[in-house]
Amino acid sequence: MSTTTIVSAPGKVLAAGGYLVLDQQYPGVVISTSSRFYTVIQASSGSANQIVVRSPQFHQAEWRYTVTYNAGGIQVNPQEDSIGGKNKFVHLALQHTLNLVSEIHSVAQVQERLLHGLDIAAVGDNDFYSQRAQLESLGLPRTTRSLSQITPFCHNGVKLTDVHKTGMGSSAALITSLVSALLLHFAAITEADFANLEGDGRRLAHNAAQFVHCFAQGKVGSGFDVSSAVFGSQIYRRFGPAVLEPLMKGEFATGTLKSVLNSSAWDYSFRPIQLPPLTRLVLADVEAGSDTPSLVGKVLKWRGHEDSCETAKDLWTQIDESNQSLARQLDALCQSYVQNKDVYEQTIRQLTSLPAQEWESISKAFYDLHQTTQRIRNLMRRMGDLAGVEIEPEQQTHLLDQSIEQAGVVGGGVPGAGGYDAIWLLICSPPNLPDEQQPLRRVESVWSTFNESNVTPLLAQESVAKGARVVQLGRNTRAQGSNSTAMIHSNRCPYPSVRAAH
């Protein structure tokens, strides 16, 4: 067994399919991001059956557990003196993944591999957390250039419970990286099988992460965030919640975890996609949060009400048609690039200097993509008006309109369930473009002068990796031995390859 296991998993942006993705009838368009969560697992030099989990980006973020064994299986018991208090997500990930390992192998094998305990570090790229305070303390403007000057995995200066998240799926990325790393470290799945998008090992890691994430949240969600963390950018159709019913009820008789998580009843589907070449995903953290469960509850209540259910059905059909049109257009543009890269790049360069409303005579395909994103926004706003929910609040509409008016911007929207806390854009990004001509600079100029809310860009782009991945150690990093965890605890990336594994 390797002495060190590192797995990273990306964040997400639900670009199309908010609310609809909760229903298995409707797919969603999910983009995985270059910003990732990392789990580093090492054999400890401590006592047997002791597990220490640290998150060095926060104050008092250390959780200690003692593993015990009885007829009911493996118990992971939080130690009362853990300075981090309770961490439901980490605790449940350890509890259920170790039991899954014991069902695949044996309890004895888990005991053997915990002979000296485990040391686990979990860190997320800075984009998962608002960096406004960091920029202010450094006296830097809110730009991507400024963000690149902040130390990777920087300390957030607060407890984990007090951090302001940016809505990129930090809990799903954490659970995916932690569960996958545990399965690999304990040899419950092989690295080769995990590397295969269609491999049984990757699917088991996905199903296990979905369960742990749902169990920690106390409900079975759509699962798009975990799916994109495991498989990357995709068209996602959810699994039926019934597959998890025994586990959600707390039925953990020996063999149940393995049986449920390997069951053929998992009927989710995904089809890998990517954004068009020479374009860039741009995200913004907006200084005003939204209560997503409240928004979703109101929309679902409106959809189910007898006075509005027919209107809702018609509207959801229109939104779904537009969402699927968006996916087809992304595919077609990627294919267009493959067929003639020179013509495609020349087209992108022309579009970069013009607002999207003037694109039709240059590229019908990109113009239609712009129109589709605008149509989705209009339909989502209509749903919000009918349901009494601010899916795209007025100030977000103003921010998006001003951003999308800029030359070289394809389109955008409010991700996921919408609200006040984030926006996404797709912009043209041809190579070797003078800085003053870059659409990103124009957008950042709009954001820096927008007076209805504070807007901070994120560094994240679309991930070039396909979902979760093992981070390989080079010869130099192998030689570091036990120092590697210490390095990550000091908020420095432990391995050069980690920073390139996006």
What does this structure look like?
This protein is of the alpha+beta class and 502 residues long. 42% of the residues lie in helices and 18% in strands. The protein has 19 helices and 13 strands. Strands 1, 2, 3, 4, 5, 6, 7, 8 and 13 form a 9-stranded mixed beta sheet that branches. β4 and β5 (73-78) form a beta hairpin. The two termini are 26 Å apart. Residues 475-501 have low confidence and may be disordered.
Short key terms for the protein model shown above:
four-stranded antiparallel β-sheet; 42% helix; alpha+beta; 502 residues; nine-stranded mixed β-sheet
- Name the poorly predicted regions: 475-501
Whole-number average pLDDT? 92
- Main β-sheet, in a few words? 9 strands, mixed
The first-to-last residue Cα distance is 26 Å
Structural class by helix and strand composition: alpha+beta
Q: Determine the fraction of residues in helical runs and give it as a percent range.
A: 40-55%
The tally of beta strands, per DSSP, is: 13
3D shape: globular
Taking all Cα atoms into account, the compactness measure Rg is 23 Å
> How many helix segments?
19
Instruction: Tell me the β content.
Output: 15-25%
